[in-house]
Design brief:
Layout (H helix, E strand, L loop, with lengths): L18 H5 L12 H4 L28 H7 L9
């Protein structure tokens, strides 16, 4: 993280399951949760833009086929903001 190590909040959540379990779900989402900005309103950061990241790891032990390429081709990045 370098010089940004002391800035912001990092919240992580982990889910582990089979491909069949994941396929039953409609979507994977990233959403804001309360962080330092919520506790310090005087800093006026509530309306500031924020960056989010979603990291997904796919493991298929014992499978000797390329699973990355078809998954990458099927991905669409949808951005929606509810106000």
């Amino acid at each position: 993280l370098g010089t940004f190590r002391d800035r912001g909040s990092l919240h992580a959540d982990f889910w582990s399951g089979s491909a069949a379990d994941l396929a039953e779900r409609d979507a994977i989402g990233v959403f804001p949760v309360g962080g330092w900005w919520k506790e310090k309103p005087y800093l006026e950061r509530v309306d500031a833009l924020a960056r989010y990241a979603l990291i997904v790891t796919i493991r298929a032990p014992g499978v000797d086929v390329d699973i990355f390429t078809p998954v990458e081709a099927a991905l669409t990045v949808e951005t929606s903001v509810e106000t």
